[in-house]
Amino acid sequence: MHAPPLQHHFPDIEQQRHAAKLGTWIFLSSELLFFNALFAIYAFYRVKYPEMFQVGVSHNMKWLGTINTAILILGSVCIASAVNFLRLARRGPAIFLTLVTCLCGIGYITIKSIEYGFHFDEGIYPGGAGHFFVEHPEHGLKAFFTTYFLLTGLHMIHVAIAVAILGWMAWWVHRDRIGPWGAYRLGLVALYWHFVDTIWLFLWPMFYLMGART
Amino acid sequence: MKNYLNDETTIWSWVATTDHKRIGLMFFVLTILALMVGGTFALLLRLEHLTPRYTIMSAFAYNQTFTLHGVIMVWFFLIPSIPSVFGNFFVPIMLGAQDVAFPRINLFTVYLYLAGALVVFIGMVVGGTDTGWTFYPPYSAQTYTALMPVLVGVFILGFSTILTGLNLIVTIHTLRAKGMGWMQMPLFCWAMYGVSVIQVLATPVLGMVLLLLTIDHGLDWGLFDPARGGDVVLFQHLFWFYSHPAVYIMILPAMGVISEVIPTFAHKNPLSYRAIAYSTFGIAFIGFLTWGHHMFVSGMSTFDAGIFGILSMFVAVFSAIKVFTWTGTLYKGAVSLKTPLVYVFGFLFLFVFGGMTGVAQATTSLDVHWHDTYFIVAHFHFIMVGASLTAWLAAVHYWWPKMFGRMYPEKWAIAAAILVLLGFVGTFFPQFLLGNGGMPRRYYHYAEKFQPLHVMSTAGSWVLALGLLLALVYLLWSLFYGERAPRNPWGSRSFEWSAPTPPPKHNFEATPVFPPSAYDYSRPVEF
Amino acid sequence: MNELLRQILYLPEQASTISNDIDHLHFWVIGTTMAGSSIVFFCAIWFTFRYRRRSEDQLTPQVRAAPLELAFIGFLITFFVVVWVIGFRQFVRIRTPPQDAMVVYVTGKQWMWKFSYPEGKSTIATLVVPARRKVKLMITSRDVIHSFFVPAFRLKQDALPGMYTTLWFEAKSPGVYKIFCAEYCGLDHSRMWGDVLVLDPEEFDRWMEGTPTEDVVAMPAGYHRRTIADHVHPEVNPAPFAMTVEARPRSMADIGREVAEKRGCLSCHTLDGQPHLGPTWRGLWGRTVTLTTGEKVVADEAYLTRSMMDPMVQIVQSFGPIMPTYQGLLDPAEVGALLELIRSLRSTLPDDARYPVPLVDQAGRPPLQHVDPDRAKVVRDLPAELTP
User: Fold this and answer.
1) Are B467 and B416 in contact (CB under 8 A)?
2) Does the bond joining B138 to the residue before it have cis omega, within 30 degrees of 0?
3) What value of ipTM does the predicted structure carry?
């Protein structure tokens, strides 16, 4: 387990780590603003079409959404534990738990894709396309489902990115025999997973719970 | 003598450099190229306006030209012109650091800029787009033109902006020299910090908006299509939520330059360091709350319009604090009128004039007449060209000796500055009158009675172009034949002048020890 | 004084009841702007001269001046608030239509303005209103965002698709005032002009009762009545229509679509079956149409070409004689492209009982041998008055 590389322009390793942490948080805040625009769209259309948004929310499958929530939270628990294990120099469990988190992400994507399949079967496509909207021509439903596909679709892409980065991290810890000093790096990447999870914790009530009639 | 320019001379040493100075230089070249392309479009537009109807291009070509002029000037020139060039180059040196916090990310931002520029260029080649740089739907969802490459190119460029901002914020937080508190660093760093905060928080919203338009235009999701429940005013809110802070991205760096040039050429401390530092944050914060003033007649509620109006005026108060401080800095100074200061005087007049017309527009009732007319065009060009471009020219001349080790020829520079400033006023002052008269913007045809003012404006544009070309010529000349520059030609107390001219790869020969203040002209200069 | 400043600042005449107030505020604010920037500039110049550098190593005192700066800020904020209050009150006036205003419906579409009155009259491009009466406009758009702008009134309001916006005004005296579109809306954005024709209230009432516009007594000087021809005959534009490199091959029908936009055909003819100023092109190809003379003809290439070149000869029943001729304005390739476009819109719905056979052999055309089912279909969902 070799010493951490100190970059020439930092006075010491502490400062370098501090900079890495600050940089990660700033990056996450920019990602948050990225999603904020979408939350604003949802809020706007929800206020404009309150009835139809309730209909749309009721239409979504609450149990699928809840399973997805559980999976993502499980992933968060796993990755947090992985960071802790790495701090205690226990690389094996750290790598294993990181991979479990990746699996959670993949599981999430799978379930989400199946859910999209259900929507397509019913004739619900983004952009108000599909025969569902011929039978239910209200504007608010089109707005709801387009917003739904937009937010969950973009979120899914971010889950995929998180899975990729975490997988790469697991590989790095394994290949370079990384020791406790690398735990902070795994922690920073874990932050990204937590961010993605937190976004979902807003999407879940927005699209599955708020105003559902069943 | 070894410096950052001749340290290594292979192509690879430039292509893969992590030296913030080389990266700043690459952005310098790229932004100048963008200025030339955008400026050429502007000259073509002005040529078209010599007559009320067809002069040199069709209406369709005209619509494409003003769109691309806006896109290139805003995103590929103005936004990176100071932060990515002078911010990258000088912030580490001013802080006594060897580089920015994340040098490899810094290099990545250059390639993001190039990728974005390439994609927009492809868009231009396959026909460009004709929506205006504001891309309002439903027109942007319907247009047959090549909108996608332009949207995608700007989206990619947005990441360059975000990462530059991120880098500068972390640099300023973590790489200040030992003993340098927040209130000791040069004011330019405060400006860079403020602009970086805006860049990090506002640009992602733009990215999302561009993505939504891409989806709307390309996949026909009808997010803003009224027939599918969409709302066209929602787009405007989202777009301007970014684009209003964007204008502060374009002016705060300029203000940072002014805050450096005036103390240096007046050999005097700023009237109030804190006023300038804090007002930067006032602008950055309130600037996020004023976007609705672009939409007074778009169908928003009267009450909201009022709120946006009064908040827009408050932003002007922070700018006024700066102007007062800058002017007061000259009081009891030892002023030497060199080219950078000439540009600063231009800035002072044009920024106050342009800014006050902004306040005028914020008095909602007046804006009902002015909105979407040439008055608005004149207003924002006064700020973007009269203030930002002028400050950029001041920065170029101010820091030229440090960056290249050569002095520019002073007499030619003053002549060019006069041409630029007079040409600018000649181009854009008539446009205030055109707007008053009721000439709408983005108009290919116009009523006959407006022709004399248009001809004046076009003549002014030629003088402005001449001034800029002259500057380009003598600056290039000076690289080879200019007088060699000493370490501190201006006798400035600001910290970057303590580094060698030009700086070596790691900026300083030894770890620098700075005096407590960058603006203490009551004692002799230490470097 | 008002007049002098108005001329210096290049402002149009003050034709609405609110124009004067807006201009007065304008004068104050602009005056302050000029004064403020000049003061700053001259201060800077004066300091530069008074405190010019006498030697390179001259030192300067460290000056601080907080109280003066605070006073300055206080003054500025007061000024801004006062100006804002005045302006906002004017804005509220602009945005609050009075209860007793007469209503006119305004529709913006690419690239013209259409006005409809509740009493039933409708006009294109000319908004006829009475002087000294309050008028409230209900504005919307058929397609993209436009903006209804009358500089002489100092008023504008965006026209949004999918919703109504309002604007009200009271014109001071009779006259003609230009309308511009002030929100970029595409190719002919800069030609989407109109006029507000302000008549004396009695003249207006006579017009509303049916007197044609040109017979209204005391037309304001300089008024040029706009016709459809003003809109669909753009000045000849010798430059290439599109400086584009096409990324994919286009059919003639696509080219026809562009020609139809560019030449203004779509100002009067729709492509989606909606009735408008001229017959819709959807389902037109090969359909038998009834003319104003009662005669029935088949809409084939000959008929359609003749309609473009000599439109007054054969006019479809229930439409007016308003189409201008395109003789000399369309080259053969463009005519062909338009025909292809119309042909691409022919009806392909399955036929049912309505299977019209052209009833008469027309002079000068070959006698009918058989009926081509493709060419004689009817679009079922067209309104009754447009079908044979």
Assistant:
1) yes
2) yes
3) 0.91
B360 vs C26: CB contact, 8 Å cut-off? yes
Q: Which residues of B248-286 are buried (b: 16+ CB within 10 A; e: fewer)?
A: bbbbbbbbbbbbbbbbbbbbbbbbbbebbbebbebbbeb
Q: How far apart are the C-alpha atoms of A81 and A69, rounded to whole Å?
A: 19
**What is the DSSP secondary-structure string of C199-234?**
E-HHHHHHHHHT--GGGSSSPPTT-----HHHHH-P
Q: Is residue C344 part of a domain?
A: yes
Nearest chain A CA: its distance from B75 CA (Å): 18
Q: Quote the number of domains for chain C.
A: 3
User: CATH number, domain at B109?
Assistant: 1.20.210.10
Q: Are the Cβ atoms of B98 and A143 closer than 8 angstroms?
A: no
Q: Does B125 touch chain C (CB under 8 A)?
A: yes
Chains A, B: CB pairs < 8 Å: 119
Specify the CATH number for the domain of residue C188: 2.60.40.420
Residue B53 within any structural domain of the chain: yes
* Nearest beta carbon to residue C22 from set B314, B324, B369: B369
Report the residue from B323, B330, B363 with minimal CB separation from C51: B330
User: Residues of B numbered 176-205 whose beta carbons fall under 8 angstroms of chain A's beta carbons: which are they?
Assistant: 178, 200-205
What tokens does C371 get?
């009926």
DSSP B7-42: S--SHHHHHT---HHHHHHHHHHHHHHHHHHHHHHH
Please name the amino acid found at residue A84: N
Asked if B166 and A27 come within 8 Å (Cβ–Cβ), the reply is yes
| Cβ within 8 Å, pair B207-A126 | no
By Cβ distance, the residue of B232, B306, B522 closest to C62 is B522
The last residue of one of the domains, among C208, C224, C240, is: C224
Domain assignment present for residue B387? The answer is: yes
Read off the DSSP letter of residue B139: H
| Chain A residues in contact with chain B using a Cβ-Cβ cutoff of 8 Å | 7-11, 15, 18-19, 22-23, 26-27, 29-38, 40-41, 44-45, 48-49, 126-128, 138-143, 146-147, 149-150, 154
pLDDT per position in chain A (214 positions), as tens? 455 678 888 888 889 999 999 999 999 999 999 999 999 999 999 998 888 899 999 999 999 999 999 999 999 999 999 999 999 989 899 999 999 999 999 999 999 999 999 999 999 999 888 888 888 878 888 889 999 999 999 999 999 999 999 999 999 989 888 888 888 889 999 999 999 999 999 999 999 999 877 5
B175 and A29 within 8 Å at the Cβ level: the answer is no
Domain A40-209 fold is Four Helix Bundle (Hemerythrin (Met), subunit A) (1.20.120)
Is the minimum CB–CB distance between C384 and chain B shorter than 8 Å? no
Q: Which helix (H) or strand (E) segment is C166 a member of?
A: strand C165-170
Q: How many CA atoms lie within 13 A of B282 on its CB side?
A: 18
Which residue of B49, B126, B297 to mutate against C (max C Cβ within 10 Å)? B297
Distance of CA C387 to the CA centre of its chain: 31
> Structural domain of residue C69, as residue ranges?
2-51+65-95
Radius of gyration of chain B (CA): 23
C34: chain B residues, CB-CB within 8 Å: 353
The domain that holds C293 is classified in CATH as 1.10.760.10
Contacting partners of chain B (3+ CB pairs under 8 A): A, C
Is C58 a domain residue?
A: no
Query: C274 and C201 in one domain?
Result: no
pTM: predicted TM-score of the whole model, two decimal places: 0.84
Number of domains, chain B: 1
The answer to whether position C230 is within a domain reads: no
Report yes or no on C233 lying in a domain.
no
> Are C108 and C81 part of one and the same domain?
no
Establish if B522 belongs to a structural domain.
no
Q: Is C72–B359 a contact, with Cβ atoms under 8 angstroms apart?
A: no
Domain encompassing residue B59: 11-498
Instruction: Let me know if residue B376 belongs to a domain.
Output: yes
